[in-house]
Amino acid sequence: MDIVELQVSEEHKNERIDKFLSTSNEEWSRTQVQIWIKDGLVKVNDKAIKTNYKCQVNDKVVIEIPEPEPLDVVAEVMDLDIYYEDQDVLVVNKPKGMVVHPAPGHMNGTLVNGLMAHCKDLSGINGVLRPGIVHRIDKDTSGLLMVAKNDMAHESLVQQLVDKTVTRRYKAIVHGSIQHDHGTINAPIGRDKTDRQSMTVTNVSSKEAVTHFHVLERFDNFTFIECQLETGRTHQIRVHMKYIGFPLVGDPKYGPKKTLDINGQALHAGILGFEHPRTKEYLEFEAPLPNEFEEVLNSIKNNH
Q1: Engineering a disulfide at 251: which of 15, 21, 125, 255 sits with its beta carbon 3.0 to 4.6 angstroms away?
Q2: What's the pLDDT score for residue 259?
Q3: In the Enzyme Commission scheme, what number(s) does this protein have (predicted)?
């Protein structure tokens, strides 16, 4: 059982406790939080409370998160775009709009549902809801993901991510014309205090985050870039490009209000390279830009 401690800040004064908690972690639904409260797993200042409790400044909130009950992830036959597969690993090109793994309240239509139908075995290290999942990309980001088919492969791939030896290169379109050809953004990322479902550059409860980028093509009001991740924080490229003043085109969370309406950010995980867990051979794969990304890029070029 995990124990999480939070402290209520001024901006959440008089907010219902179930709302406060559900916005404190994007993986906690309000329904789930209400169940925890009713089961006595949430205490405020060492006392059990009800779901309609109003938060006060400096309240100390302690949540005992129970071990997740096994959930049956339904195998769904999908037309997966698989780039590589053997007994240990699988590389798949995830389409834009697909969620990587199920979560309570969103149990179907994810990449994991499709993988369950495609594979007999996936690594169980990340639990029932995330079998085989070593790293994620956002729902509206397209591109390549490596999947572990057994625990040996999972541990090897995770260690490579920790050691920063995995090659992950993304194509993106950003607002503004970046004048320098290359850059490195080294700025720690943590949860945004004012919007708990967003990430931001901060020194508070944050982790190291490093993104390298170079310009592929410049336009009057946009730049086509390639980013290489050294670390893999949640929303890293989206947060970092916003931080330096060049937010991603179409990004509903971190982009400007006036952006191109393309159903999510223009971001594609195009190149993925890693050492094979068993053979130790370096493998690298490249997925071309999806059609909708190409269309946006061509539209910008034509209006340049």
Answers
A1: 255
A2: 87
A3: 5.4.99.-
